[in-house]
Amino acid sequence: MKKIISLITVTLLSLYVFASNTSLNGSLPDILLLPQDANFYVNSTEPLQSKVAQAQDIQNYFSQLYSVWNEQYSDFNLSTLNSWYDYFIKSPGVGENLSPISPSIFKKIKNSTESGSFGQLMLPAMVINTSNLRLAPTVIPSYGDATSTPFDHLQCTVIYYGTPIMIIGETKDKSWYFVESGMQADGWIPASDIAFVSKEQAAKLENWNKYMTFSRDDVPIYGQNNTVVAQGKIGMVMPLISENGKYNVLGYGKDNATGNLELLPLKINCTDGHNFPYIMSEANVAYFINQMLGKSYGWGGSFGFRDCSLTQKDLMSQFGIFLNRNSGNLLSCGQVISLTDLTNEQKLKVISLEGIPFRTLLIMNGHVMLYIGQYNEKAIMFHQYWGGQVLTSSGKINYKEKQAEITFVNLGVQDPATDRSTILTALNAMVVLGN
Length: 435
Hints:
The structure is a single chain. By secondary structure, the protein is α+β, with helices and mostly antiparallel strands. It folds into three domains: about 1-50 and about 280-435, Alpha-Beta Complex (endopeptidase fold (from Nostoc punctiforme)), CATH 3.90.1720; about 65-205, SH3 type barrels, CATH 2.30.30; about 210-275, SH3 type barrels (Roll), CATH 2.30.30. Helices cover about 25% and strands about 30% of the residues. It is built from ten helices and 23 strands. The chain has helices spanning about 1-20, 30-35, 50-65, 80-90, 105-110, 200-205, 280-290, 310-315, 345-355, 420-425, and strands spanning about 125, 130-135, 155-160, 165-170, 175-180, 185-190, 195, 210-215, 220, 230, 235-245, 245-255, 260-270, 275, 335-340, 360-365, 365-375, 380-385, 390, 395-400, 405-410, 420, 430-435. The strands form six sheets. It has a six-stranded antiparallel beta sheet with strand order 15-23-16-17-18-21. A five-stranded antiparallel beta sheet has the order 6-5-4-1-7, with no helix packed on it. The longest helix is centred in the N-terminal third of the chain and has 18 residues, at about 1-20. The radius of gyration is 22 Å and the shape is globular. The two termini are about 30 Å apart.
C-alpha cells in the first residue's frame, strides 16, 4: 500500500505546486527563446555509456520487469485499502460530467472487494490490453471540483500491453482485479484486460533473450489476416522471434473460456521498430525527445498521453534503463546528487558541473525533468509538465503549458535579479542514470 500512498501524495503535491493558481499569463517565454528541437543541443556522437554498462542496465531492466512474478506474499492489506475508500466517501469529488459524485458510489465500491482473498491470491498474470490502473474498481473519474485542475484522483497510471502483473485481490463478481506490477505502481484493473500466466509461460518469458522496441507511438501490431491486435508505444518492449522483412514477435492473447494467457505470433513493420535496446547516445535520446515534444500532458497516462514521470520512464526504457513509475521513487534509479539547502544559483552551478546532458534527471516533489545541456550558458531541460510559476518583484506569473517542452531549468525567469522560478527553487536532487 506504500506505493498507492505515494501516488496519492504525488497527486496532492502536483495539485499544490502546479494548480494552486488559476490565472494564465500567456506563453512561456522559454519556448520562444529555445529551439524546440532536441537535435539542436546534441554535442557528441559518442555513446553515453559503455556496452558493459548498458548490458548491466538491461539485466536490471528485465529483472525489475518480471520481479513481480516471483513475489511470495504482498505487503498490501485490506484495512489500508479501505482507509482510502473512506477518504473518497468523505471527499468524492465530481465525476465525468462535473457534477458531484454521490458518496454512496464509493460505499458500494468499498463493499465490492472480496475481503477473504485479498492479499492472498498471488496469481501471476499479463496485461493483454493497454489499460488503466485505478485506486478503485471503477472507470468513473474523481476530480477535485468543477473548476480545479482536471487530475483524476483515482488514476494511478496507464499500464501497457505486455506488462507482467501479480493479482492479489478481486471484486466479489471478479470483474476487477487488484494487481501489483514491477513498474512500482499498483491498483485495480478490469478482468477483461488481463490473462492468467502459467509457471511454464512465466519461465519461458523470463528466460527470453531477444527483444524489440518501437521507434514511435501508435504502431500497429498485426495478428492473423493482418488484423491489428494492439498498439505499440515508445517505452514498450516485445519478445523478438525473428526478422524477415518484418519483426516477428511473441504477443499476448487470452483463452476466453479459461482466462489463461495465449502466446501468439505477431508482426510489426520493420520501419516502426528497432532491436532492443537503442545505443544510448545524445542523438538517440534527442530523437525520442522530438517524438514527444508538443504532446499533451496526461495525468497518470490518461487518454493515451503521458505525465512527467511516464515521459521519462518511456524515454529511458528505449535504452534499457528501468525507471520507477512516479517521481517520488526515482532516487533509487541512479547516482544521486543532493541539491537540498542550496541557493538557486548554487543549484544551477552543480547541475552544469556534475550533470551529464541527456542522462541526468532533475527531481522535485511531484515533478521530474531531464537535463539536456546548456544554451547561452544557461541550463536547459526537457519535461512534460502542467505548468509553472515565477515570483517577481511585482507579483506572480503563472504559466500553464500542459505539454512536453524544452525550457530553462530556471523556468520562466526573465530578470534573474528579481524573478524566482518555483521549479528551480523546489529542485532537491539530480539523478545520473545508467551504470
